[in-house]
Amino acid sequence: MPRTITSFGNDTVKLIRSLRDRKARRETGLFLAEGLRILTEARDSGLLPEIIAFAPAGAAHPLAAEIIAATEAAGGDAIETTPDILAKMSGKDNPGLILGAYRQPATDLAAIDRSAAPLWIVAQALRDPGNLGTILRTGDATGAGGLILIDDCADPYSVEAVRASMGAVFTQAVGTATWDEFVAWLRAGPGQLVGTSLRTDSDYLDATYEAPCFLLIGNESRGLPADYENECDLRVKMPMLGRADSLNAAVAAAVIAFQVRASWR
Predict the structure, then answer these.
(1) Do residues 61 and 121 share a domain?
(2) Residue 216: what are its φ and ψ, rounded to 5°?
């Protein structure tokens, strides 16, 4: 049976609240996901939280009841509490009625199976967690294997990134590496590295994409460093018809990723 927490000073409340901070996520190996839709995506991907917390109304939905029961059956901690304490845990004034603390998976490149999908998205120095989460959603929508984060990127397991992913953080593999580590790993097997760049005449609509394709997206404001572009097997650009010279990084990733898939039909 779920245990009941009614105190803001409870240690579990403090633990879940701390997961909004990157240091706490790194120390505990846990991250926070909120809302029934995202927790259902996790369950459908074979993942259950180590801690699940909910208000009474949150447990009323049949899917929520199933996830709570499955979490308890797997040895997880189920907590019934008040909406006010849930708000304390999540840091939101209007939190969902259910949330979970999940174990972070390994993110080293050795855990990435490039043969699992024909398309992978690679992001370099991506700083906005909302963009990161949106790119994870794009990866899920385009059947990509996952997202590889290069250099100093936002944390894919931050509350903001997980929320923006709408559950895709559970369906997409996530890898992290330095540029040198990534290049060594990439060149040890098959894979076409495709970079987005303004310094090319190759239109993204006319390019020939080969599987597995690794689509490389640069930093939101600076784009890709020149030496990173030089490593690419192919550089493509999207012609801009207006005054802007580029798109938001997450939007650019989505446009090109869908074109890559369309070119293989």
Answers:
(1) no
(2) -100, 120
Q: Identify whether residues 123 and 192 lie together within a single domain.
A: yes
Cβ atoms of 246 and 198 within 8 Å: the answer is yes
In Å, what is the CA distance from 202 to each residue of 102, 151, 153, 160, 215? 42, 26, 27, 35, 15
pLDDT (tens digit per residue) in 39-95: 999 999 999 999 999 998 888 899 999 999 999 999 999 999 998 899 888 877 666
| CA distances, 52 to each of 70, 126, 251 (Å) | 10, 30, 33
174-233, pLDDT tens digit by residue?
Answer: 999 999 999 999 999 999 999 988 788 889 999 999 999 999 999 877 889 999 999 999
- 225: domain CATH number is 3.40.1280.10
CATH assignment at residue 90: 3.30.1330.30
pTM of the model: 0.91
Residues 99 and 116 in one domain: no
d(C-alpha 265, C-alpha 263), whole Å: 6
Cα–Cα distance for residue pair 170/105, rounded to 1 Å: 10
